[in-house]
Amino acid sequence: MQYSQGRENGRQDAKYQRGTKNHSPHFYSLFWLRLPTNLFYLPLILCLGLSLSSCGNPSPTQSKPEPSSPKEDDTKLTFFGVALEQFDEVGKPIWKVKAKQAKYTTDKQIGEADSPEGELYQDGKVVYQIKAEKADIKQDGKQLFLQGKIVATDPRNGIVFKGNELEWRPQEDLLIIRNQLNGSHKQLLAVAQEAKVKTREQRVEFSQGVVAKSTDPQLQMRTEHLIWHIKEQKLFSDRSIQVERYKDNKITGRGYGNGAEINLKTQIAILQPQAKLELIDPLMQITSNSITWNINKENITTNSPIRVFQSAENVTVTANQGQMKIPENTVYLTGNVNAVGQRRQSLKSNQLTWYLDKKLLAAQGNVVYRQIEPKLTFQGETAVGNLETENIVVKGGNSGRRVVTEIIPQEGR
């Protein structure tokens, strides 16, 4: 059997060679050594073996121990081709890991395992398949810790996590992957510093520098905290978040909020509180305490006080609630509507329909139009016109008679 070991293992070989030839390095050439569940017996067995083998005549070359940490040499052994298994109190597996080699230490049941790969179990079923460069098992056997270029795959839904550290806490139903984390799935790609996975719920909690991209709808989200319910296809954030909407790989809108709920199945995003939505075409800004963004139908709705600013006409409209249909370039506003132009001319009403393509406002109910220069005020039941050019037609009056008043701006303005 051909194998190579470092200086540390060489010293261990020398101990075994002091006895009979039957205690030669064949002990280290065991392949796929299966360690028992209760690893506390292993130090006793190994210590007895070392004591018996040391009864032979000592080798002259070993009469003077080297000054470099002899205690560590006596407490660390290396095994090749190791299968590590851990079970719960009813005998169900909670992890099974194979490694090319593992170093045993008395203070850590298994110290280090090189190139491990295996499975993580929950309720006796595989929840993640894992690979790493190194593995470390805690002393109580209740946690598994891996380091170095980790790949964890959920065979149930196909999600793949990559990072530099992995911690498995089966009693808490918690898988933690951290340090340059990225996750990939057919529906979502995400990078962050850490992800906490609840395997039973299939829920992932991303934190610190989160950037997530969904494929359908085509969104990019930036936040410090994002929760992904994989089965329900929903995303939640309770922190400041930015959501960018892309169509044909071009950005069409950008939403902000101090929290968000995004349903990838229905393609509806709710931004709240302190929400803001910036549209590219038409170029306008919508702010409210809560905004519902139907990404599929391209509709925007809010039942909270709303402010709409349109830079092309330099018009700002506020109301108690509103709705915008982007394909129709139309905004519907209700309750205490107040439209204000660049020169502080204003149009107040109960309801207002804003036709963006036509640059036309249509107001209904308790209409009041005010103009600063010349100073004019008109009241009626309806009004239609262009606020930017101050060309407004007000109809109806308090007397009940049909009154039509036309306001024409002064020449040369």
Description:
This protein is mainly β and 413 residues long. It has three helices and 31 strands. The protein has a 31-stranded mixed β-sheet that branches. A hairpin with a 4-residue loop joins strand 12 and strand 13.
What's the layout of helices and strands?
Layout: H1 7-17, E1 33-34, H2 41-53, H3 70-74, E2 76-87, E3 93-105, E4 110-114, E5 117-122, E6 125-131, E7 134-137, E8 144-153, E9 160-169, E10 174-184, E11 188-198, E12 203-214, E13 219-229, E14 234-237, E15 241-247, E16 250-257, E17 260-263, E18 268-271, E19 275-279, E20 284-288, E21 291-294, E22 299-302, E23 306-310, E24 315-319, E25 321-325, E26 330-340, E27 346-355, E28 360-371, E29 376-386, E30 391-395, E31 404-407
Parallel strand pairs: 1-2
Antiparallel strand pairs: 2-3, 3-4, 3-5, 4-7, 5-6, 6-8, 7-8, 8-9, 9-10, 10-11, 11-12, 12-13, 13-14, 13-15, 14-17, 15-16, 16-19, 17-18, 18-21, 19-20, 20-23, 21-22, 22-25, 23-24, 24-26, 25-26, 26-27, 27-28, 28-29, 29-30, 30-31
- Rg (CA only): 36 Å
Strand content: over 45%
Largest sheet geometry: 31 strands, mixed
Number of strands: 31
Shape: rod-shaped
Give the low-pLDDT segments: 1-74
Summing up helix and strand content along with how strands pair, one would put the structural category as: mainly beta
Q: For the terminal residues, how far apart are their CA atoms? A: 100 Å
Q: What is the average per-residue confidence, as pLDDT, rounded to a whole number?
A: 80
- Discrete helix count: 3
Residues in helices, as a percent range = under 10%
